Amino acid sequence: MKFSVSIFVLILLSSVAICVKAQSADDLFAQARKAAFDESNYPKAIALSKTALQGSPDYADIRVFLGRLYTWTKKPDSARLAFNEVIAKQPNYEDAYVGLGNLEFWNDNSEKALSVVNDGLKHVPTSEPLALLKAKVLNDLKRWQEADEVVSEVLKKNPSLTEARSLASRIKENSAKNKVSLSYDYIYFDKQFDDPWHLISVDYGRQTKYGSIIGRVNYANRFNTNGYQFELDMYPRISNTFYAYVSGGVSNTVGVFPKYRGGFSLYANLPLSFEAEAGFRFLHFSDNTWIYTASVSKYYKSFWFNFRTYLTPSNNAVSQSYALTTRYYFGGVDDYVSLALGTGLSPDDNQNNVLLNSNNYRLKSNNISLGYRKSIKTFNVLMLKVGYDNQEYLKDTKGNQLDFGIGYLRRF
């Protein structure tokens, strides 16, 4: 009987000791994280993590955290040992592969990083962080088509992942420094004009280290008159937060196009996936027209929202127009459907900005448009659009306008 009681007491004491050790390891882990993230004291965090592992050597979370600490303090060999020890004991431990893959990637060992990530995906095939890291590594290795396929698959499963959408944009830019596009618009009026309008646009864009540059030639047949316009758009990068839009155009057929047009906007990337913009547009027919614009954009899950206003001062009054645009992404950056609702005329709308000539911009207008954009084999993009405008072209006299558009873009 005494022997049984002794065994029971021994088992009880052993259980208490194990619980104390586990609790102690958790406390030390919490202290280590606080030292690293709140105090930026990595040596202290390393010491606390090592102490915790002495009592709980198989505590994988702490060992992976120790590997990350070694990575941040530029001790790659110690980091590799920590990550590999976890992988050897727990081959399905996702964070260990992510930590080791990032270590190799950040140390310019992209081939090794790819090997680590592929091994991790064999054991954790549904891992989003590993797939995203694989796309980054493939992009660095200039294997852009593979990178695009991987990141597109991530976006199909999680379209709201803004990091993946941003990476997809960079992959598109890196994989194809050049792009050409061709578009055609047919515009029908039931009352305002007897003949439909035809617009054709051809442009060439080039990515540079300073930002993108786009040259464009527009042709239009309006009012039974042919005309051409030549435009240049630039999107210079200023910093990680700011970039700009600078644009100018000229035409020798006033009325079909404005004689001169120009524009400038400053964009700011804000927290929580917001973007803000403020700028102006300039049109010259026989007189100058200055239009001021501001917008705010937001990514939310699989959606992108943009609200924009145009303000046109004239004769001690300000004409206002508004537009709300939303996109639903069903794949990569070139795979979405869009819906736009607006009032008034936009100087950025090449189909209708000629109507800003004279006093038309003071008249009422409501419009809606639907768009579809789909990438085909990575570097080809098909674009479709249909729009409807209810336009007051004379006081208290309205007409309807239908716009059908098709376009094709090729990156290379």
Automatic annotation (TrEMBL):
InterPro entries: Beta-barrel_YaiO, Ctr9, TPR-like_helical_dom_sf, TPR_rpt. This is YaiO family outer membrane beta-barrel protein. Residues 1-24 form the signal peptide. Pfam families: TPR_19, YaiO. The keyword Signal applies. PANTHER family: RNA POLYMERASE-ASSOCIATED PROTEIN CTR9 (PTHR14027), RNA POLYMERASE-ASSOCIATED PROTEIN CTR9 HOMOLOG (PTHR14027:SF2). Coiled coil: none annotated. It comes from the Bacteria. Residues 177-349 form the YaiO beta-barrel domain. Gene3D superfamilies: Tetratricopeptide repeat domain. Keywords: Repeat, Signal, TPR repeat.
